[in-house]
Design a protein that fits this description.
The complex is a heterodimer of chains A (about 325) and B (about 250). Chain A is an alpha/beta fold and about 325 residues long. Chain A has 12 helices and 13 strands. Chain B has helices at about 1-15, 20-35, 50-80, 85-90, 95-125, 130-145, 145-160, 165-180, 190-195, 200-210, 220-245; strands spanning about 45, 50. Chain B has a two-stranded antiparallel sheet. The chains are: A alpha/beta (about 325), B mainly alpha (about 250).
Chain lengths: ~325, ~250
Amino acid sequence: MRFCSVVHRYRSVVALDHVDLEVARGETLALLGPNGAGKSTAISILLGLQRAQEGTISVLGTDPRAAMVSGKVGAMLQVGGGSGLPYGVKVGDLVAMTARLYRHPADVARTLARAGLTGLADRQTQRLSGGQAQRVRFALAIAGNPELVFLDEPTVAMDVEGRRSFWAMMRGFAGEGRTVVFATHHLDEADAVADRIVVLRKGAVVANGAASTIKATVATRRLRFVSEGADPARLREFDGVDAASVRGSEVVLDSLDADATVRSLVASGMPFSDLEVTGADLEQAFVALTCDLANVQTVDDAISNRLRDTRSETAA
Amino acid sequence: MTGLGAFLRFEVLRLLRNPRYVAITLGFPVVFYSLFLHSLQPAVHLAGTTWNTYFMVSMASFGAVVAALNAGGTRLAAERASGWTRQLSVTPLPTWSYIATKIAASMVIALPVICVVEMTGLLIGGVRLGLETWLLLTAVLWAGTLPFVVLGVLVGFVASSETAYPLVTALMFLLSFFGGLFTPVGDMPTVLRHVAAFLPSYHGASLGWAVVAGRAPALRDAGVLCVYALALGLAVNWRHRAEESRAFA
């Protein structure tokens, strides 16, 4: 699946600004970004629900609508307030009918089992809970035995347990060599499930790589140590320090150059113990990537420099 | 297209398995026929036939209108609200097939309703017609159902899931009453007679009244129905497109 220099605007709002994406067969890709970043727009273009105003798109070697009609693509869309299902039908019948719309459908019983719906096959759709309805929508997305599946925020409104079992289900499905593209704003989901993460911000790709690469994108390192009576003002003088906080005897420094900060710390003669240096976690990376760091010019510059590097690497 | 067949079957079964829908579409015309059959002498001559036969045609038309409006309007509005229509748009089904299948399913379901009212006429009303007349009557009434089927779909697109049901009910009774399905048009005040002449419900039933009176169905009636079906169809198409382009804006 390839998505080249796609631009899409809603009146004056640019939803996608020269976005490039490429997904290899068998890959699980997460589109990560805050609301309004362009995730749903990208997915609806890839599904052929919308036409991009600029750029070229190829899905399974053809255009999005043709790929959909060929029956090799499945999708689970966001449904707003509704259940996304018709009423007055049993879950099993609905999944069976959907399977028949595809040329090479999956076995209905297997689809139901896979989505955790075996016990609910005789349940009427209007009597499902929100989480159950979501599982039915997942079953509909995979009923046609698709090679490529798009999931737009599939676990929105699910509780922790529901999300956990959903992704267990999803991993089993992706494990069969299928390609999965999902949008989410849950970092832990992207981190745990995706082979690769594309971070979107205001319609542009700001990061693209494995979770570990993205974490490394952000220069910030966090130093923690114990020191009695440390003075925050003095800590901020250390090389590389961007922010310092002191709580009792615990000191936390965010540094753009951890090595230099440690050297300053040692040179200052300040007594300290239990020094610990950690990289930014995905959450910090995500916040750094998707927020306007207007007041922290140095961090912003550092991040954009690093991003330029990553992007030229990806392009190469 | 096996997919389309499966979808049509699914839609028809879903209607048949809805007890409220079946009770309304069969119950209303059958009960009204049985109740009002004796409001006149069943054998009274009227418009080239007798009251029992004339009123059977009226109630068969009414049943078809009820079946068509309820099948389209209420459910379509609910399915738009639930997001099912969007889910269908990401299956291999062609984009036109949702509306086409709704129309086909409503047509399929209207036929047995017409037949049940005819059976009621035969069994309770003592209606006696030749086999050919029965068949022709069924055919013209069924064909005349099309504008109402399309109207039902249009209501489903225009109304929300809350307003669709009252709107369908209002249309159903207004069209039937002013179209002369409850009171013969000939007995209506002049003003209402002019109103009836504009309504598809009057022209749909007129096809059937002509057949039972031994006349050929009037081209004028068929023409009016075609114009209604076409105009409503264009409106549906327009609303459908507006909806598609608005879905993401």
